[in-house]
């Protein structure tokens, strides 16, 4: 506790200094002043906890000093008045103005001084604890509010569509009121960062929010939300200074520059097309995220408009399909040593076609599916762990994708037997490969039997004898494993995932998934996306 003494009598200041061993009792006597004016400057510099002041002094007396200090919002110290026997009226006025207690100069003893100081210290500590408790409570409320907003926008972007009334109810509850005015959003994706500095995801999010919030001050609409790991959305009014495309781009560049300057973060920023109403935010966000895919082929992060990309996100172009088929043929023949060179050719062709990274990942995972089929046919474990698939799906650049594919190949070479080491009969291997190639559509035993040129009953017995499973059971296991990986993709709804694995009936899909993994697809998706929300 820091203490200063204010009195025009130098001997009294010295006497108080010598009266008690201040430091032994937990006090720091950090200064003395001869009047109120001198004390104010000292208080500004030292920020004392306790001010012991005389009431009668030249220039500025104790009452004026008390009144001045009590009027300062930043002063949280306590004041103890010094008086003589005949100054009771002054003492009453000092207490009325805010002094905590008083001491009589003539009869003052060490015990009395320590008692008043002790009472003052207890009050100061109690108030500090109360302020700290209030601060923690306020921060908890604000953090809960921010998390609720994040969840609202995450559901808005990737969840099932809400009715107009429910959307309005949830938005009003969170005080999100953009109305029907023109809006636009910015998609922010952290591209490069120091993993040691930003090991805590919450710190990165908090820091980005602070800088973006400063830029949004005074705007009629300004919402910031964390949508997924390293992905953020800024929702803004499309009126005023941001009505023009140039105004929007200027803001996007300013955000990117400030995050680079103050946080050393390299960020992709994409400006959406204008839209009206919260309901259309999902489409605008997804369009921005697709456009940001062009960064995959560029040497540095991008600041761009969603319409500038030119990234191909439709079906696979014929050159890509041919290269994919060449890689699959290589796997079937057992000549897997050339797959790394094939990947270089695939990346080059993808760059020329500006193929969206998600399509490149899908094509590459199809190749890996064929390896898994070959591995299963040879009696190996076959399946590539989800972490390797995630690395391919989430690669931000061609270099990262190349490295992820190399890691996947190394894993398969170590843990999956080469296709030449065959255990299952040729017909069984063909059945497994057919199931994997057609996993996204309806598969009948009749179609499988026709493909492998076998009688349906004989085919079923042969498969069960070789694998220990029925064809339907094996297919369902493949579908649920594929579904488990697809559910980690925030762009895919549960319904879309079910259709991707060839099960259009959501109730049947839910039952199969719960039976295998012990929780519903919806709960699994929420858990997976929550785990992804880290730098």
From TrEMBL:
This is Helix-turn-helix domain-containing protein. The modification 4-aspartylphosphate is found at residue 54. It comes from Paenibacillus oleatilyticus. The lineage of its organism: Bacteria, Bacillati, Bacillota, Bacilli, Bacillales. Keywords: DNA-binding, Phosphoprotein, Transcription, Transcription regulation. Residues 2-120 form the Response regulatory domain. Residues 429-527 form the HTH araC/xylS-type domain. It comes from the Bacteria.
């Amino acid at each position: 506790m820091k203490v200063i003494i204010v009195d025009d009598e130098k001997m009294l200041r010295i006497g108080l200094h010598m009266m008690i061993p201040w430091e032994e009792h937990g006090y720091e006597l950090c200064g003395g002043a001869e009047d109120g004016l001198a004390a104010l400057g000292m208080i500004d510099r030292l920020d004392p906890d306790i001010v012991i002041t005389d009431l009668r002094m030249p220039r500025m007396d104790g009452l004026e000093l008390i009144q001045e200090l009590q009027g300062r919002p930043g002063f949280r110290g306590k004041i103890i008045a010094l008086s003589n026997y005949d100054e009771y009226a002054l003492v009453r006025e000092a207490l009325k103005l805010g002094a905590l207690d008083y001491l009589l100069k003539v009869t003052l003893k060490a015990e009395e001084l320590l008692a008043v100081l002790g009472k003052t210290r207890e009050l100061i500590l109690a108030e500090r604890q109360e302020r700290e408790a209030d601060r923690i409570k306020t921060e908890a409320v604000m953090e809960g509010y921010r998390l609720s907003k994040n969840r609202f926008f995450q559901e808005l972007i990737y969840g099932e569509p809400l009715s107009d009334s429910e959307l309005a109810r949830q938005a009003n509850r969170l005080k999100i009121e953009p109305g029907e005015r023109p809006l636009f959003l910015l998609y922010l994706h952290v591209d490069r960062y120091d993993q040691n500095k930003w090991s805590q995801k919450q710190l990165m999010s908090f820091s980005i929010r602070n800088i973006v919030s400063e830029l949004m001050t005074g705007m009629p609409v300004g919402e910031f939300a964390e949508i997924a790991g390293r992905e953020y959305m800024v929702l803004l009014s499309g009126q005023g200074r941001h009505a023009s495309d140039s105004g929007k781009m200027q803001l996007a560049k300013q955000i990117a520059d400030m995050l680079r300057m103050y946080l050393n973060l390299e960020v992709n920023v994409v400006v959406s097309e204008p839209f009206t109403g919260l309901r259309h935010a999902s489409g605008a966000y997804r369009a921005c995220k697709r456009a940001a895919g062009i960064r995959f082929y560029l040497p540095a992060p991008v600041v761009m408009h969603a319409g500038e990309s030119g990234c191909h996100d439709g079906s696979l172009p014929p050159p890509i399909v041919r290269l994919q088929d060449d890689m699959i043929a290589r796997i079937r023949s057992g000549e897997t040593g050339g797959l790394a060179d094939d990947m270089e050719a695939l990346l080059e062709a993808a760059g020329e076609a500006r193929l969206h990274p998600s399509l490149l990942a899908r094509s590459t995972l199809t190749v890996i599916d064929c390896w898994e089929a070959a591995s299963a046919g040879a009696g190996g474990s076959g399946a590539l762990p989800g972490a390797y698939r995630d690395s391919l799906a989430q690669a931000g650049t061609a270099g990262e994708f190349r490295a992820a594919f190399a890691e996947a190949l190394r894993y398969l070479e170590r843990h999956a037997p080469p296709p030449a080491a065959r255990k299952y009969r040729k017909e069984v291997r063909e059945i497994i490969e057919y199931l994997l190639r057609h996993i996204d559509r309806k598969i009948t035993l009749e179609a499988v039997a026709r493909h492998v040129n076998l009688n349906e009953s004989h085919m079923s017995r042969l498969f069960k004898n070789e694998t220990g499973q029925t064809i339907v059971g094996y297919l369902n296991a493949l579908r649920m494993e594929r579904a488990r990986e697809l559910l980690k993709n925030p762009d895919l709804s549960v319904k879309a995932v079910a259709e991707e694995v060839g099960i259009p009936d959501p109730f049947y899909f839910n039952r199969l998934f719960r039976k295998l993994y012990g929780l519903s697809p919806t709960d699994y998706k929420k858990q997976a996306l929550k785990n992804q929300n880290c730098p």
